[in-house]
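A quick word before the example. In earlier lectures we treated sequence and structure as two separate objects. From today on, think of them as two lines of the same record. Here is Rab family GTPase written that way.
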Amino acid sequence: MSKPVTSIKLVLLGEAAVGKSSIVLRFVSDDFSENKEPTIGAAFLTQRVNINDHTVKFEIWDTAGQERFASLAPMYYRNAQAALVVYDVTKPQSFIKARHWVKELHEQASKNIIIALVGNKVDIVDENEEERKVAREEAEKLAEEEGLLFFETSAKTGANINEVFMGIGEKIPLKGPEEEAQGSGLNVTDDQRVNLDSPGNADGPAGACSC
Ligand SMILES: Nc1nc2c(ncn2[C@@H]2O[C@H](COP(=O)(O)OP(=O)(O)OP(=O)(O)O)[C@@H](O)[C@H]2O)c(=O)[nH]1
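And the structure line, produced from the sequence above:
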């Protein structure tokens, strides 16, 4: 008998160039690119993983960090069950931005949303500790105060990337086979990648859009 499948809608938020798309690329394709183009609008990808006796299907919305796309974010985090709020451990400004995202999610997103705070590019710090500009303790304190999961990652080396998604998967109540039979309302192909400059494309934000 096939395993029950639970879909988890997950959104990535964070300042431009902190490595959101690279985290997704590492998770979905176990790959890394030194010269990743900035995301335009948002990108959509899926990945399945097995957790205990379940298959968890992550439906991932990778949002653009550039300020000109900031107003689109609510369309992606509304109805999300999980969010990764990403900052760059070498960029203090990106941690300030991460605090803002956590606040906004708590005010505007689903009450039960699971949030993981993710300090990326830890490989740079591993090479030279002087490059660290956001103390691990400071991030841990924020995570504790706000009830967040917390990870330091490197999309470049792959360090802790799977752990972030497994950590989220383990916190979300997994459905039984009967509930899954009703479906999530989304009908997307695995490993589909769509670059969206209009949120009317693909399923997800379009359904939630009040425009
Ligand atoms: N050293 C190092 N570089 C990284 C890491 N993750 C991403 N990068 C680099 O950082 C740059 C930005 O990465 P992206 O994944 O495009 O960042 P983003 O947050 O998706 O950016 P936007 O799409 O503009 O929001 C790229 O040159 C990546 O190669 C990492 O873990 N370590």
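Notice the following. The mean pLDDT is 86. We will return to this example when we discuss secondary structure assignment.
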